[in-house]
Specification:
Length: about 375
């Protein structure tokens, strides 16, 4: 459905070509109405009836995300978690699903809760180990394989084309959390995935001022119809204003992400040489376990996220985060401001993060300033 003449950066900069037909405004209008006029003959020819079903600017964003991911259809949700949980809840009750051991912790926690309540049969595997995944899927019983790559917070890389093949052979579908690479760096549907999910709160919006989620589907099938029904009936829709802000954020995604990838690579290489750093976890580094696969699977960069493991464990890591002046101590990722976070503190004892791990979300500040700030904090914190 995408115009071959339009590269992602072009689509994004021009918001997919949307303008306000009524006024000639070069941007789509923000239409906040929750209800829409019915035609005298009782039809809704303009395609909108009620705000829980769809909003005009939301449709524009959905169409843009569908084109970027190369999908047939897309749905916006009120948050990334609303999008992800809708996918699992669209499966028949009691479905067997395979998910990664290393993944966005909030979703892993929710999945384990569903399993404890008997609503899903959940198996967590090392998704980068294809033999482990082959051993975990149950042909005819597994409905969904969930993947995230590079995965929070150690940035382990999994092979989406191979996972799609394993899922298909077992009669299951592959769904991918594509929040971190975005469709600019990885296009899971082209690699055989059936669904892509986004926390649009992160890179897609990019300014830490909108909570939003999305699902893009390879085909507009029965599963997609159930997702649409869940959103409509349960109401986890994205407000019109948030959709409008998200569209504004998306216009600069390509240039933001290019700068963030470059800065993350620069920081990763420099921090790897820092005496207070035990390990740098970044798929762009040749020392990273998933580097070769990431180089093949990711296009145009390795993303703006990396983690460092500080020598001296949790205490030294927390002391480092306490000493930065420029980096912001906060959770989340993908915004224009750089964030630093001691991951085990938020994830709790079930975290796969080593105690000394600090997760870094690289923003748009000058990379030299970011590096200098961290180097000073690391040196001071680990000197004791
Ligand atoms: C933040 C995040 C989510 C959850 O999205 P929300 O918008 O916070 O609900 C899911 N997956 C990943 C990778 C995330 O970073």
């Amino acid at each position: 459905m995408s115009d071959p003449a339009e590269a992602p950066a072009t689509l994004l900069a021009r918001a997919g070509g949307a303008v306000d037909e009524a006024t000639g405004g070069i941007l789509p209008a923000l239409q906040p109405s929750t209800t829409f006029l019915r035609d005298p003959d009782n039809l809704y020819r303009r395609g909108f009836d009620y705000g829980r079903d769809a909003s005009p600017v939301g449709r524009i964003v959905e169409s843009l995300l569908g084109r970027l991911e190369g999908g047939a259809a897309a749905l916006l949700f009120a948050s990334g978690m609303a999008a992800a949980t809708a996918i699992f809840r669209a499966l028949p009750a009691g479905s067997h699903v395979v998910a990664p051991k290393v993944m966005y912790w909030g979703l892993r926690k929710w999945l384990l809760g569903e399993a404890a309540a008997g609503r899903l049969a959940v198996e967590l595997v090392a998704m980068e180990d294809l033999d482990a995944v082959r051993g975990a899927v149950r042909p005819g019983r597994t409905r969904l394989v969930w993947a995230e790559t590079p995965a929070n917070p150690t940035w382990v890389v999994s092979d989406l084309a191979a996972l799609a093949e394993i899922a298909r052979a077992a009669g299951a579908k592959l769904a991918v959390d594509n929040t971190v690479p975005t469709p600019l760096l990885t296009r899971p549907l082209a690699l055989g995935a059936h669904l892509v999910m986004h926390s649009a709160t992160k890179y897609l919006n990019g300014h830490s001022d909108v909570l939003a989620g999305a699902v893009v589907a390879a085909t507009e099938d029965e599963l997609f119809a159930r997702l649409r029904a869940i959103r409509h009936d349960e109401g986890a829709v994205l407000g019109a204003f948030e959709a409008w802000l998200l569209l504004r954020g998306l216009r600069t995604l390509a240039v933001r992400l290019r700068a963030q990838c470059g800065a993350a690579m620069h920081l990763a290489a420099a921090l790897e040489r820092h005496p207070a750093v035990e390990r740098v976890l970044y798929p762009g580094l040749p020392t990273h376990k998933g580097h070769t696969l990431a180089a093949r699977q990711m296009v145009g960069g390795f993303g703006g996220m990396l983690s460092i493991v500080v020598r001296g464990g949790a205490e030294a890591a927390i002391a480092t985060a306490a000493r930065v002046r420029l980096w912001t101590r906060a959770t989340s990722l993908g915004g224009v401001e750089s964030l630093i976070e001691h991951r085990a503190s938020i994830e709790g004892p079930a975290t796969p993060a080593p105690p000394g791990l600090l997760r870094l979300s690289v923003g748009l500040e000058d990379p030299a300033d970011l590096l200098a700030d961290l180097e000073v904090a690391l040196a001071a914190a680990t000197r004791g």
